Amino acid sequence: MRRFLFVFISVFIFQWCAGQQKPQYTQYVFNNLLINPAVTGIENYFDVKTGYRSQWTGLQGAPVTSYISGSVPFGSDFVGGDAAALSGGNEANPYSHLFTQTYEASPPHHGLGFLLISDMAGPINTTNFDLTYAYHLGLSSDLNLSLGVEAGANHVSLNTSMLTLENPLDPAIANGSNSQWKPDLGIGIWGYSSNYYFGVSALQLLSQNQFFSTSNRTTQAKTVPQFFVTGGIKVFLNDDVTLLPSALVKFISPLPVTYDINAKVAFRDRFWIGAAYRNGDAIAGMLGLNISSLINIGYSYDYTTSALKTVSSGTHEIVINLMLNNRDHVIAPPHGF
């Protein structure tokens, strides 16, 4: 086990040095703010989400990610109106045919938000804090386009107490800074209507050199831009049951292109079940419950399909959503997929 842990940590640090990645999520559809700042302020209430992801359970030093995010709109026409132009008021079901038939594009408005993400993997701890902003405008009577930006900082630290070295003065980490702050910047575009969405974003745009030793920079790491393309659609099976397929493609050099394919079945605005596939990594089952106009919750379990499946018990992820100041008492996010 110790030998495997050493190999795992070595491989992880190598990958981190080759192209540091932001954490991955199975339920990114539940919180697209994680991958695109342009969704900031898309709903007309204070949208707060918190999540916890334990990856490759059972493997010592495996990644553990937790986060909290918040988003709120600003604009008298939008905030003063009903949620996402629901003409049916709080009795309208966001997943129903009625919603799509009466939907109108949201008036122009601003959105402000934040992201606080903690990611621990082996001896490396990363904390990312960003403020987000988006401007939403109407392209047609039923289509909005938003432009967003996020800016902040990330803190990377190496916990040397977790490392057992043959040479305590290993030049890879000696005489260096094991705690570093670096600026962060990302941009995004988001198009959305009542029954589809699409988005393109570029995160971690400020490439930064990162190394833990000033005497030996062969361990130098360099952050790289990360590009995301995503989209989804609502397919009505009947008035109360809706199929929600979506996909996400990630471009992170020098790693191979990866993609996620998701499909959810929503039963009115009360609960949903779904499945996901991530190429070369995992398949997942998902379920969610919209408890009230204040809170809803989602859970997913990933079954590992990579070589790590022999030592991993899978990945657990849970997301809790609070819809604060939800004056129209919608049970499910009108623009949720």
Largest sheet: 14 strands, antiparallel, barrel
Main structural class = mainly beta
Class, according to the CATH hierarchy? Mainly Beta
Percent strand: over 45%
Number of helices: 3
What general outline do the C-alpha atoms trace?
globular
Description:
The chain is mostly beta strands. The protein has a single domain, classed as Porin. It contains three helices and 17 strands. The strands form two sheets. The chain has a 14-stranded antiparallel beta barrel. Strands 8-9 form a two-stranded antiparallel sheet. A hairpin with a 3-residue loop joins β6 and β7. The radius of gyration is 21 Å and the shape is globular. The protein starts with a helix and ends in a 13-residue tail after the last strand. The N terminus is likely disordered.
Indicate the topology.
Elements: H1 2-18, E1 46-54, E2 64-74, H2 76-79, H3 97-102, E3 109-121, E4 124-140, E5 143-158, E6 179-192, E7 196-203, E8 209-210, E9 221-222, E10 226-233, E11 235-236, E12 241-251, E13 258-267, E14 271-278, E15 282-290, E16 295-304, E17 315-324
Antiparallel strand pairs: 1-2, 1-17, 2-3, 3-4, 4-5, 5-6, 6-7, 7-10, 8-9, 10-12, 11-12, 12-13, 13-14, 14-15, 15-16, 16-17
